[in-house]
Amino acid sequence: MNLPRDPETNQVLLRVAETAASHGPILDEATRRRVDALIAERPVREALVDAGLQPSRSVLLSGPPGVGKTLTASHIASQMKQTLLVVDLASLMSSYLGRTGRNLRSILDYAAQNECVLFIDEFDALAKRREDDSDVGELKRLVNVLLLELDRWPAGSFLIAATNHKELLDSAISRRFDVLIELPLPATEERKLLISSLPVIVSSAVSDDTCALMALATDGLSHSDIVRLCNGIARETIVRDGGLSSLEEGLVSLAVPKLRELAGEDAKVREQVAVAASVHLGLSNRRIANILGVSHPTISRAIAAFQEREQR
Fold this sequence. Notes:
The chain is of the alpha/beta class. The chain is built from 15 helices and six strands.
């Protein structure tokens, strides 16, 4: 594959990435449906055109760091059965006037002419708001290049851009994408599914209850933060014990104090933890009470109050 290069440095501007062979990223149901809908359009592009409809050609993925934007891009390419080409920003960007724009146009022309999925991560580095006075004119020219190319992007190739800072993007750029998808931080159910599917958790036969505890204790963390945390505990366990026999104990030792800290003396937070543990994870009231260090009736009252509000 004769990939485009920077004419002065001869650095390759794109790299071919392996696509995800697994079931794909762990997403909430609404986001998963939107991603699946994009993929489902691919085999029926001609039927859409015949009906006078423009097939989706591009998607902008946004959200906090570590929520699976890159894995989602890989999953889309895999399901579309297309080569995934990833832009190398370090090679693309140049301090020489005009070179970055030429490199960007070279990348987009190549991807448009060779059916593929093109992935541009850290998209805000290229598509910042043009009214941002702190940026040099070169970045404003990049936005103009992107606007032109997005308008004429062919249906054969698919463009995926990702950003942690959607608010920094030029508004005209955002409007050019066919689909905008925001990936949120994982909720309790997604956190539990993620934890229980980690290879080190599966191979160690960690119990469902412990995965549930970790799901509760990792509230507010991203997918990558959770993977790093669990793998870090496993690594420490192997270094200390020479194996993973006490991994479950290490996970519980981290989760229980964290949950007690979250609940503390705040009845509202305690109710939120209790409801998540009971309604979403199926833990018994007695088990929740033991975890939080409170009485069984306290947990029963908290859950009953939640159920009463839900029924109103």
